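Methods: example folding runs. The two proteins below were folded one after another, and each record is reproduced exactly as written to the output file, sequence line first and structure-token line second.
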Amino acid sequence: MAALPVVLNVSHFYGELLKVSLELMGAIFIIARIVDAVQDPLIGLISDRFTHRGPRGRLVFVALMVPVLAGGFLMLFAPPQAWHSNQTIMAIWLMAALLLVHLGYSGVSISYHSHGAELTDDYNERTKVTVGREVFGLLGMTIAVVLPTTLTALLGEGRGYTMLGILFIPVIVIFAVPTLLASGPSIHPPVVHGERNAFFAFFAPLKNRLFRRLLLIFVVNGSALGVAVTVMLFYVEHVLEGSKVQAGIILLVYFVTGAVSVPMWLLLSRRISKMAAWFVGMLLTAVAMALAIFIGPGNFYPFLVISVFTGIGLGADYGLPPSILADIINAPEGGDTQGKTGTYFGLWALATKLATAIGAAGSLPVSALLGFDPARGRYGTFALVVVYVIVPVVIKIIAAVLAWFIHVEPDRGSVRDEFRRQA
């Protein structure tokens, strides 16, 4: 639940309410992600070493990182009111809060995903594990998009965002504790990696050519979502001229549809391979999003229909890539990196955030350059159409082309080869 509110609401909260310039926020996002570039592989390595505590060792590390995540989230959305008018202090506060949130979220997500990848060695069972995790993750995202819009509508933007930061603490406790206690053990024996050179240990998975190819497609594809999500609230308010309630409904439909569609992608992946199913999801999203070019003020319901189809595409983006990664981790192509789950997922987390950062850091300055910058009282809607619609569609098409030609899955061909084989 933590990642989405950060991407979706921070730019709106700090840009629209606290008047931090979009260029400055873009720079802050870039710096925060550079720090992530160092810490994520390190966290993955630490997670691997926690396996010496037994088959549930990674979950111990998750428990240690949960308080860091909760504290950073509270700090992010509840800055001292006395400092709200000082843009410099708010920028520094934003940077510090983001660093804490990123540290906590990385620690939780990397170990959590690594543990999930070690619950089974079966190709289809891995997809089931991934689907279960991602469905609940998307339901968490649904809460994450409904809660801010509900709170800000009821309490006003300032108090609403503060309450969001406060409520996150009991929410993470309620959901984290049962998960940590009830999760099954890893089927792999505990192992401690003793590489002498930490730098090479961090990036050792990059020796796996299948992993490199998956990362390339994943980052390109994910940056489209990063671009769109960053300016989504601006788009609804200034292009659709919709209310906060309508923005919440759009996001609710988007993520609920994504969660519901994940099992469908599981079934499709069994027929045409996981990469081929993901490719179909990319095309679906690109086509649906392209139709938004015809959307104007007051076209709430047509845009809601578009959100249904882009939500279905989101299900593919969330449900399939982690399952493909789990297959790659334990494939012979990995060589001496085979089975180093935490290290792989450390780089995977870095790639996830890199994709989001590329979108966020690029979309905000480009929006300002094209005429949309609330801090300066500029509200050009053309900029939002370009950034929210045109740019993500182009990126999705590029990702689909890469997926079509590049061989990624172990023991399978490229998407083009798989479709030819099916024919």
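Second run, written to the same file directly after the first:
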Amino acid sequence: MLLAFRFVQYFGGFNRTALVPAAINYLIRTMNNKNILLLLLLGLSISASAQTSGAPAFGNKKDIVKIDLLALPLKNISVQYERVLSKRISVALGGRLMPETSLPFKSLLINQVAGSDQDTKDIINNARLSNFAVTPEVRFYLGKGYGKGFYIAPYYRYVRFATNTVTVNYAEPTGPQRSLSLSGDLSANTGGLMFGAQWFLGKNITLDWWILGAHYGSGTGNFNGVPSTPLTPGEQSDVKQTLEDLDIPLVDKTVNVSANKVQVAFSGPFGGLRSGLSLGIRF
């Protein structure tokens, strides 16, 4: 729920077109047929030589499919497809999926977020989270190129988190303790920049190191819950106070509690870091 939001917060000059036809016409008028033939043969030879010299780094293998090895311990499956367009430029589309599971690194998250608040600790311990992300990017290679060497990649990321196991405990001063389950999702749109490097390991294997990336944008979320029995005025006050006490910096949240329904809506800045190590296949 709101803790999912906090969790993600961590974890040249002149026109040359007109000059070309004039130059060709001048050459044709001033050269005989033999010279023209020799010039054509020379041009073909240079073109073939340039293609051959670029073949070892690029060849006809313009496509790369990769999986991020470092995402697996985080219970995420992250894959990427890259298409090389030219020596300096490629485009890529990444997808990430985490099936519903408990939060990774619970103890670290509790230390960073919950502190001594037992209600927050219980929410983190009981929460189960799923997420999905799509990340298109453009890469500009500065080294050898053709998908190889150091690169800079501006990117956009859409991410969505969902959960249906956030539990809030409540009780009147003289009544028994009860619990309420909330379900909902959080989505965010961010843009960022990443630095990385890619190597070819033989003819078909690649190693792509996402050295470091950072993205920033905004996110919104909505969570709802229906109590098993109508909430008394005292219980409504307790539930509302518990949810409002969840302190998430820079996030605006609205809590509405009635006898038959609990609603939490929030919005705010959203960002994160990006890193990884992907193993890929060229084809």
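Comment on the second run: DSSP finds six helices and nine strands in the chain.
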